[in-house]
Amino acid sequence: MNEALKSVRVLVLFFFIVLSLALVSNIIPVNKDNGWGFGNGLRYGLDFAGGTLLQLKLGSEATPEVMAVEKTILENRLNSMGLKDIPVRPWGSQYIIIQIADATPAETENIENILRQQARFEERIDGTLAAKGNEVTVDLGPQGAELYNAPGGGYRWAVRVQHNKEGACRFGNAGDGKEGRPVDIFIDRPENTTIVFTEANFQLMGNLTETQDTGSFFFGNTALEVLTNRSVIPVLSYSTNGSDVFDRLTELRSQGYDRVMLAGDEGKIPDDLRNRLEEQGFRTSRMPMGNKTYPEWIAEMTGLKNSLNLAFDPRGECVYQAIIEGTTQTLDSARAEIQTTQVLLTSGNLPVELTLESKSTTPPTLGRRFLMYSFYTGLVAIAAVATIMYIRYRRIEIVAPVMLTMMSEIVIILGMASLIKWELDLPAVAGIIATVGTGVDHQIVITDETLKRTLKTKKTVSIAERIRKAFFIVLTAGSTVVAAMIPLLGIGSGMLKGFAFTTMMGVFIGVIITRSAYAKIIESILRKEE
Amino acid sequence: MTMSGGYYKQLTDKVDYRILTLLPPAVAVLLLLPVLINGLEYGVDFKGGMWMDVLTPTELDAGKLKALEADLQAAGLKDVKATVGFDIDTHQNKLVVQTTTVVQDKKPVTRAISKYAGTLTEYDTAVIPYSGKLPLDFTQNLEKRLKQGIDVNQTDGKLILSGLDFNKDDLQSAVSYYLREEVKVDLAKKNFNIRSVGPTLGKSFREQGFKAIVLALIFMGFVVFVAFRDIIPTVAVIQAAINDVLFAVGGMYLLGIPMEPASLAALLMLIGYSVDTDVLLTARVLKNRSEDFYVLVDDAMKTGITMTLTTITVMTIVYVVSTTLTQITTLANISAVLWMGLFADIFTTWITNVGVLKWYLDNPRHKDMWKVWRWRR
User: What's the whole-model pTM score?
Assistant: First the structure.
């Protein structure tokens, strides 16, 4: 036994066991939010953690570029609705998966609605509508964008935009004589909405305009002009009693403005006003400044995403083609600009249509119970293996290493999963069962081969030679399983990917680390006896 | 097991080994016949549709289930199947309704089901009598404390909270704390779950699953061929894997286990287990030509049967535990599929694979003919 403990293979095994235990228990902090505890270092998939899974289907197969744009648009839309950190995962060339871990029932519904409907995209020139989302198309292929070295250093990028006839001609009219004015691009500009500021903020908006360091959307206008003229949103100022605001709002409602956005928290604009408005049938929302800058705040209230300099005078003629361009310092930022612009321009009109294909919800308690039960079932299974091994070999010194190897295989697979942040779900557990099960098979092969002295012929074979023979079987069987799993990784389905990946990882760990250490331990036990 | 003569020798003394060899594949194909004729039953992931389960204290007999099916069919659902089971955790009846139709508006469906099973709650919902003003950040604090998203609504002097997973005591203590007064919580646990998979998605899952198994067999065939450098032993190994899978699929049909992601995973796992015994046999027999064939087979079988019996025992235990104690159908189905496949593996390995190897070694002519590609050390 001493000899085995000194062997490199056994030391490597112990190193990996300790490392994996530290990872799985989060002693090496892989999951920053969790404390120590067995299992805290792992990431759990929907099957175990609970949550809602939505599968969206694209109307047709998409290239990776189109898929990336689609993904970013969805993420932007969810983010702009205040639903942060919701992973949007492309899945093959035709599906997108969205996993929602802990959203409220209403939020989940909201997300579904956001995914179903399109964003409202508008190009406006000084408040006049120029083009709408479905009138704009952007070629997402290599033809649609340009990227070249700028003469003065840096990189120049350009994105081509196409307007259809209706949009092109409206654009021409809206832009007549507006050379040098901005083309404002809005996503989900609030409709039928009035913004109410505090008196102080209202004054400030009237004076705020561009300085050296503020954002670029002012184009010589004040913030108030950007809001009222360019975004076409009426703005009111709220003084302490609020009665004047009330009258003005009622007046505006007769023109259809039945929504009110209160620009400030309860401290600035009291809830009393909000309640009175709601009672009168207004739909209200709050948009406090928080720690945003003034331009950021304005952009958020209006849905203004970008303001581009109109570099020519269309003189009322239809503008079918336009180019949006800019300069950046680095190649990477130029590429990023191209993508942002493409995403922006297509967000009103997703490049490929989406439909909700599948929805499933797993309650967290059910998932946790499932995980616990699987764990207990696993323990019972290990005990069963131990019993059978004892019945067959009648020797504790063989059964003990087999148990050690089995459990260390599980621990190391989990440890590696935690290291690479692999999500543990039902297929992954099936993969672990598969590897540990074949692991026992291989240990039986190694044990029997090593125990076998000679057959009919009296030829003695060294233990090393016998183990080499056993390893031929282990290696062949292992490689066969890995080969069988390779096609699963290639096939677009994530469902089988988790299974295939865990199985392959398990086989590698088994053959390289645990089973070879087992062989060494068995070898040294038997050598002592001979 | 005795070493004298060996089991295989005794067996082939009575029956021609070539007939014996063909028996297991014949049984596998026979078992597959009903599947080929009637088609395999697919789970909701593979055929698309909706899958609903409802926990209810109401007893539902066969007549009521039939009536429910008829009502749902009238509501526009196709291929409706309603079954009832028992949920061990809540001690309630568990009604499961499956259909191949996916509808956007679920109202008519839920209305029909609640007629038989009582009120359906899709989320845990708590009602608390409270008419005061909610403290600032009440929702945020509650969400943080209970670690989940919560919807808070206040109407008619009642506070209504809904979320994915509430525990009554936790909720009562948290709400009382944040409202700064002792409140009484009336909690209705979620008793209704619905899953839907679009039919096209189901179809693409199904095709991918089938493709996966076929490709897996081809790839593993290649590896086995590289290891033994001869085509006949490779075919012998592959036939065992294929026949084990066929046998398990036939068994699934007989036991009514649907083809779903879990059973597909089980079939793929089966390939792994199946290969182990066949590689063991082939390696022992082909790499040891000086020894007697029957002795080698017997010796390999001793190891191989230990391997298979170990796994079969484990699967039996997993099956029993999952059907009686934990009620996890997924694990029960996986273990049942593996059980059947491993049972078949005893015959496909120790009769068919052995038979093919015997034929291969007895006929040197064939050996030369098939020796298409060989390395020498």
Answer: 0.70
